[in-house]
Write a structure and sequence with these properties.
Helices cover 36% and strands 16% of the residues. By secondary structure, it is α/β, with parallel strands linked by helices.
Length: 226
């Protein structure tokens, strides 16, 4: 095991803010990677009105890295929380959905406009596919480091930035963070399977979720060899 002084982030302070459970686990995964490189890490869970995390969701987030401290706040405390980070935090990970990423970047630009010692801003996405694709990436384009899941994501982001005469050099392909520590799979089977996973709140309306599951069932029945 490397000595503390040999770790790349020894003595650095890395914080993250996150609203929803998937973003919380993703942010905690990034924090865990930083902690293993010697950083001091904290996750700030921001609760939104009518969207409070359940006890089980909080436990799952904590289980991602039990050694990282977790603090709870409300979303409307974001400006006050991050104002004090300038000069005290080296890196801030934004584990936020697209709209709140835009709002956060605008608030941070106002809060930190008078300082040259603001944290490095990092953003990543917990899903395999960005919600709203290019729009979702551009919502986060104001960060210093945008973590993307695939080369296809990077190519799409670069195309969008070129169309807007915007620099795309802040993007890097990291792969899906929640898969970083998953063991390598065995060789693919002779007859590979296709597995569908339902999300409990996407689509929002239960009727839409039921319809989607029924259509997936029909699709699976049409291709029984899979």
């Amino acid at each position: 095991m490397a000595a503390a002084a040999d770790k790349r982030l020894a003595g650095r302070t890395v914080a993250a803010v996150a609203c929803f459970d998937s973003f919380g686990k993703m942010a905690m995964t990034l924090l865990a990677a930083c902690r293993r490189q010697g950083a001091y890490t904290t996750l700030h869970l921001l609760e939104i009105n009518n969207r409070a995390l359940s006890r089980r969701q909080r436990l799952e987030i904590r289980r991602t890295d039990p050694r990282t401290r977790i603090e709870k706040h409300r979303w409307n405390e974001f400006r006050q929380l991050t104002h004090a980070m300038a000069g005290n935090v080296d890196v801030l990970v934004l584990g936020l959905d697209g709209r709140r990423s835009r709002d956060a970047l605008l608030m941070l630009a106002a809060e930190w406009k008078e300082t040259s010692r603001r944290p490095l801003l990092v953003s990543a996405y917990p899903g395999i596919l960005f919600r709203f694709a290019l729009e979702g990436m551009l919502d986060r384009s104001g960060v210093d480091l945008l973590c993307l899941n695939s080369n296809q994501d990077l190519e799409l982001y670069q195309q969008g930035c070129r169309a807007l005469s915007q620099d795309s050099g802040n993007a890097v392909v990291t792969g899906l963070p929640i898969l970083w520590r998953v063991p390598q799979h065995q060789p693919p089977p002779d007859r590979p399977s296709i597995v569908f996973f339902e999300q409990p709140s996407i689509p929002v309306h239960p009727v839409q979720r039921h319809f989607l599951c029924q259509e997936l069932k029909h699709l699976a029945e049409a291709w029984p060899e899979h």
